[in-house]
User: Fold this.
Amino acid sequence: MPKAKPLISIIDDDESMREAINGLMRSVGYRVAAVASAREFLSSRHVHRTSCLIADMQMPGMTGLELHRHLSASGKPIPTVLITAYTDDGVRERALAAGVIGYLSKPFEEDDLLACIRSALTHARSGGR
Assistant:
């Protein structure tokens, strides 16, 4: 039986960004779950199925970094790529120190995001999850 394609979950309150990333992920063959908030993701059935998380850094309620920390603390770490429109080297350093796989500033190149996804999936397969 063929192995299921990885599920990439996208959490971004900006619908146009969420849909653009959704389209990119589908175009390269990933399964995708896209939601507008961290709380919506946490209450979904996708949490335990997600192979990689792409989350906006600045969202109402819970930031992407807070979501990453929450998942890690609750024993469900998911390799995470954070995206942000607000470049801040201090926040970037804290995010990477917290174990985030990638931290990209908007607008970013599709190839950079795909490289982060490949790295996250490799990390997950190697047991770094």
